[in-house]
Amino acid sequence: MKTYNKETICIQGGYQPKNGEPRVLPIYQSTTYKYDSSEHLGDLFDLKAAGHMYTRISNPTVEAVESKIADLEGGVGAVCLASGQTANLFALLNIAKSGDNFISISSIYGGTVNLFAVTMRKMGIEVRFVTPGATDEEIEKLFDANTRAVFGETVANPALDILDIERYATIAHKHDVPLIVDNTFPTPILCNPFKFGADIVTHSTTKYMDGHAQVVGGVVIDSGNFDWEKSGKYSELTEPDDSYHGVVYTRDFGKAAYITKLRVQLLRDVGAAPSPMSAYLLNLGLETLHLRMARHCENAQKVAEYLEKHEKVSWVNYPMLKGNSQYELAQKYLPDGVCGVISFGVAGGREAAVRFMDSLKMAAIVVHVADARTCVLHPASTTHRQLTEQQLIDAGIGADLIRMSVGIEHADDIIADIEQALEQA
To answer: Whole-angstrom Cα distance, residue 27 to residue 30?
Structure first.
């Protein structure tokens, strides 16, 4: 399937029916599977044979979607999970334990900031945040013998800072640790971080991949490129796992060592698995992902250009606008488009922003982003309200910032709705 273009993989990837089988990916709504011998089932539990043991670990419907996403990103394997938050948590827990630390860009989604700074801290894993403007020297000072990864978002939510993937990959690899990149906003249609040196990619599939605000989910994809043995830092991958009778993931699974361990150890024990129905719905979204992303980007460009000229709009942030601070990085990593998300401020500050949002008729105020319908949110008082004032500043979120997720409706109708709302702001 990797020989096909992304547009074809979106539709044909992951599931190829044989003679007389259902043309559309079936929903295998079963928790368990039948085997003809106890020996075969024992081999499954010893990881000596391929197959499904229990839907908490794997399922045919989920597996088909995982295969499609791995192909789209160019990875050796993927594991679908119950949410994007779980994906980011598992991506790090798979290689970090109590006493370890990792480095993260500060301008990431507020929920992820809280996951890293509060919940993972309680697990004994320390996050060391670095601002997007930090120099290489400032970043390198944060590394020590217990640093296990570097984390960033391809396009930060909602600051829209673009990660210089090659730069951070170079720094991470210099210190023998992987670069983990959350690629939710661009999706693999617009950017493949593996091509620029990233080692692990995560997604909240709840966003553009699903695209219809129907199903929560996440995924972790392994490039297979990081040399865990050469690094010398990851004994959990390079030494025997007693819970599987001495399996050594790097020895027994080669390039798929990381993603295999994530499935058979973390997913097995924590159980944050998606349902077969969730995977089925996600697959429907993936089939039109290439079409929707093009329309999201086209509409967002028109809306951003309109807002840039409006007297009641104090500022507009969209990386594809010429003169934007992220424009050059966008041309390097995302020449075909960034995403459908725009951030801007309304003249008059927070009160004007609230009046504007309350006056919208078509665009909805929702705690969501990146689906077919245009929606808006005030991050400082909602998704990022748990952050301190300094964390808000580090994340690039001001009190007047409005995040607009431009949908795939007709651009003229979106702009007309914005125009009438701005008149009342």
So the answer is: 9
pLDDT at residue 164, rounded to an integer:
98
Place of tokens 């994530």: 262
Token digits of residue 204: 């909240």
Beta-ladder partners of 101: 126, 147
CA dist 303 and 308 (Å) reads 9
Residue 336 burial (C-beta neighbours within 10 Å; 0-12, 13-18, 19+): exposed
Phi, psi at 301, each rounded to 5°? -65, -45
CA 340 to chain CA centroid, nearest Å: 15
CB-based contact 240:253 (threshold 8 Å): no
CA distance 283 to 64: 9
Alpha-carbon distance of 307 to 302, in angstroms, equals 9
DSSP state of 81: E
pTM: 0.95
What was the pLDDT predicted at 425? 85
- Which string of DSSP letters, residue by residue, matches 367-416? S--SSSS-EEE-GGGTTTTTS-HHHHHHTT--TTEEEEE--SS-HHHHHH
Give 236's contacts (C-beta < 8 A, 6+ positions apart).
Answer: 94, 95, 97, 249, 261
Q: What is the DSSP string of 361-375?
A: SSSEE-S--SSSS-E
pLDDT at 2: 52
Q: What is the pLDDT of residues 129-161, one digit of tens each?
A: 999 889 999 999 999 999 999 999 999 988 899
User: Nearest CA to 258 among 249, 248, 247, 268?
Assistant: 249
Per the prediction, the chain carries an average pLDDT of 94
Q: Is the peptide bond before 379 cis (omega within 30 degrees of 0)?
A: no
The letter for the amino acid at 178 is: P
Residue 422 parent element (H or E): helix 411-422
Total residues belonging to the chain: 425
Write down the H helix ranges in 4-83: 6-12, 38-45, 60-73
- Measured CA to CA, the distance from residue 54 to residue 184 in angstroms comes to 28
* 153 in Cβ contact with 124 (< 8 Å): no
300-305-308 Cα angle (round to 5): 120
First to last CA, the chain: 51
Using one digit for the tens of pLDDT, what is the confidence trace for 310-328? 999 999 999 999 999 999 9
Task: Quote the tokens at residue 112.
Answer: 């992820």
Residue 269 corresponds to which tokens in the numbers above?
């024990």
Pairing mode of beta strands 101-105, 341-346: unpaired
